[in-house]
């Protein structure tokens, strides 16, 4: 996956590390003008994000920090989530705090990673038409077998035993 240098929030400030060392639960300063390497929840500040890579939407999206409530984070809270592969155009601090995000997913667990994984390893799918064709062939084969075995006794009954020496019954 994509790697870049990010600033990890530590007890004494910020420390520059590689994004490959990030794990869920780390708090980082949200970088601008580079693709994000991980999925983040905005915990402070406001970000304007270009999500064209994931959604195809060319209009930048505003992401605001997660409000401090007792509610648990839900995947439907997309206005607080910055996705891997998207580019932060600009950040704005609120109350003189650094614009930070909490890492929630890394690698193939991110939205971008799931997209890449689906491209590399697509799920097999069967069309409804294909299933119906198999059913039709199975039913048609069953009907032909029933007809075949229904005709055989009639053929045998119409043959006179005295003339059977002169009649060749070739089924195949």
Question: What can you tell me about this protein's structure?
Answer:
The chain folds into two domains: 5-120, Calcium-transporting ATPase, cytoplasmic transduction domain A, CATH 2.70.150.10; 126-158. It has 172 residues and is an alpha+beta fold. It has helices at 52-55, 111-120, 128-157; strands at residues 5-10, 13-18, 27-29, 39-44, 46-50, 61-64, 81-82, 87-92, 100-105. The radius of gyration is 33 Å and the shape is rod-shaped. Strand 1 and strand 2 form a beta hairpin. 19% of the residues are buried. The chain contains three helices and nine strands, in the order βββββαββββαα. The chain starts with a strand and ends in a 15-residue tail after the last helix. The model has no long low-confidence stretch (mean pLDDT 83). The protein has a six-stranded antiparallel sheet, with no helix packed on it. A three-stranded antiparallel sheet has the order 6-5-8, with no helix packed on it.
